[in-house]
Amino acid sequence: MLNLNVDIFKLMIQNGANNLSNSKEHINALNVFPVPDGDTGTNMSLTFTNGNKSAQMDPSDSLANVSKALSKGLLMGARGNSGVILSQIFRGVSQGLEDIEVATVQNLADAFLRGSEVAYKAVMKPVEGTILTVIRESANKTHEYVANNQDITVEEFFEVLVKEANISLENTPELLPVLKEVGVVDSGGAGLTLILEGFLEAIKGNVIEASELENEAIKANVEGSEEEFGYCTEFILRLDEDGQMLFNEGKVKQSLAKLGDSIVLVQDEDLVKVHVHTITPGQVLNMAQQYGEFVTLKIENMQEQHDEIYVKDTVEKDYAIVAVAAGDGLRDYFKELRVDKVISGGQTMNPSTEDFIDAIKNINAKHIIILPNNSNIILAAEQVKSVLEDKNIHIVPTKTVVQGISACINFNVDDSIENNLTNMNAVLDYVKTGEVTYAIKDTQFEGLQIKQGDFMGIANGKIVSSETDLLQVTKDLIKSLVSEDDELITLIVGADTSAADKDEIIEFAESEFDCEVEIIDSKQPIYYFVVGVE
Question: Residues 248, 300: one domain?
Fold first, then answer.
């Protein structure tokens, strides 16, 4: 095959989506930080699946048009930094294929080179040893190969591209020391390589099917999106004696995938925490109850939440603030701080660019300020400006909820946009953040031996404590954050924190430090405590 037509291109995209989706848990396991976070594999898979859906729906016979559809779908579905960078790679590829109905090998070489260039420009401070390195090195090497071998086929082109991507991927630990320390390759680069390998298999005539579990999840997602938005269902289950013997995490996840999506399942001895979006919460509860008794239970109608989003503001105001937060407590707290829209998300639930657009497009304000409140969400928020060009959107790149709260406190509705942005951005320099969560795997990180299930104290992105005692880890974390000049300690208490543990940490903070202590019951998952110091 000397040229690439639109039919093969669509099969390539489908193959790439399925190949990545089938291996997303492997990509998730490459995560350097041993915390339950947004997961690179999941973010990239959701992003590329959305792009694939857009590409398959495009009726055009033009490679350029389908490529544009892929690019738009990727942009709208982009989640996490890896998903955004992936969308930018194929945005560049689309630019390289502009006005091309059938692509030559040279067209493809130029397009992937353009993909690398666009991806690098999208990141303010590109880091080598990541997906950026993999696309740059593989695109450059393949472009050079094409220049020296003018008569190669499309299959040979992708064989070279895949080979060079794998070589670059294997070298990522030499460029990024933290990868070498943990003993993994870059997860984003690995995800990209899986997509390219799916492309190659399509050109060879091989179809990669989605796994059975993935098909069930996709089916549930489609059914839910077509019929209704369903219910956000969360519960903690205490396993009884029979349940402890019968409970199998993999099988339960498969059962949940048949009933819904956005699944999070965490087991800690005889307790199981479940989060799922489903149109049949009763079936979910009946399935779970066979293993034990409910400790807590919450079901929310997402249709009502969706309807609230789509009510258009009729009167223009000067400002609107949009923030990302997980948990009803934090949502309500941000509302008290005059935040207009709170997008549900954070760790494990990185909202997509489209989620931001849905929340913002009906806001009627001269200036819209977005607080991502998570470093893995900032790039997705940034993409909104390129889609909603008719709105004045400003991103304050808050990396934590604590920074977001302080930014809101620094906001003054009667001040100018310039002064507000200056004051809100100032918190990025002086607000210190700590988090207490649990380790999802055994690892060695920055000299610390960490075991799966240990509690970890993370101060400003650095793990400072790891052991089995939650209270000791939390106290160590607070000590590492507070200095003589600090005046305020904010304790954000998670959904899984007991009242006794909460009271002991409050007493410790109030007695140990000469600071005001503010308490927020966030009801958020993942973190037992989030600590802000300023």
Answer: yes
Question: What are the angstrom distances between the C-alpha of 286 and each of 22, 247, 294?
Answer: 29, 14, 11
Tell me how far CA of residue 510 lies from CA of 489, 499, 514, 519, in angstroms.
9, 16, 7, 11
Domain that holds residue 452: 432-533
Determine, yes or no, domain membership for 277: yes
Q: At what angle do helices 105-122 and 154-175 cross, to 10 degrees?
A: 30
Residue 245 belongs to domain with CATH number: 3.30.70.980
- Distance (Å, rounded) from C-alpha 44 to C-alpha 50? 10
The segments of the chain whose pLDDT lies below 70 read 32-38, 212-230, 262, 268, 301-314, 347-348
- Residue 482 sits in the same domain as residue 410: no
Alpha-carbon distances, residue 64 vs 10, 68, 70, 108, 161 (angstroms):
12, 6, 10, 12, 21
| pTM across the whole model | 0.74
- Check: CB of residue 381 under 8 Å from CB of residue 370: yes
Per-residue pLDDT tens for 296-336? 777 776 655 555 544 455 678 999 999 999 888 888 999 99
The distance from CA 67 to its chain's CA centroid, rounded to whole angstroms, is 24
Query: Based on the domain organization, do 379 and 438 belong to the same domain?
Result: no
- Report helix, strand or coil for 216: helix
pLDDT tens across 340-353, in order?
A: 999 988 766 788 89
Extract the tokens encoding 445: 């990180």
Residue 37: both structure tokens together: 């976070």
Residue 233 lies in a domain: yes
Residues with Cβ within 8 Å of residue 297, at least 6 apart in sequence = 234, 235, 285
Residue 359, Cβ density class (10 Å: 0-12 exposed, 13-18 middle, ≥19 buried): buried
